[in-house]
User: Which sequence fits this backbone?
């Protein structure tokens, strides 16, 4: 059962796919709220917003700090993953986040248009 958050205990990722309007974002947020109730640290971000924040962080010198914050989270929820084309540099940054989280606790949910 997903609400047990056992995927987090095993440091696994979770991918929620399906057509528009079936509730992928709702389910991801509900799991995030349950994680907060269980005292996990959680951040929800649209993938496009994360890419924009990474770009700005590189420009203003706060990239390392942002990456450290993302690495420390117990659960990172990325919504609308793969909805828009991503540049090569942005895809490398996303991979860097995924790799960095894998070393700590890989709990990651992303939703996409299956």
Assistant:
């Amino acid at each position: 059962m997903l609400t047990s958050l056992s995927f987090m205990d095993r440091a696994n990722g979770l991918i929620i796919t399906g057509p528009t309007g079936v509730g992928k974002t709702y389910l991801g947020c509900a799991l995030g709220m349950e994680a907060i109730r269980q005292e996990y640290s959680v951040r929800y971000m649209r993938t496009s917003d994360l890419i924009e924040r990474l770009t700005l962080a590189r420009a203003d010198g706060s990239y390392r700090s942002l990456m450290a914050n993302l690495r420390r989270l117990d659960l990172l929820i990325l919504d609308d993953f793969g909805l828009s084309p991503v540049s090569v540099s942005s895809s490398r940054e996303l991979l860097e986040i995924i790799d960095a989280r894998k070393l700590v606790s890989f709990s990651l949910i992303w939703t996409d248009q299956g």
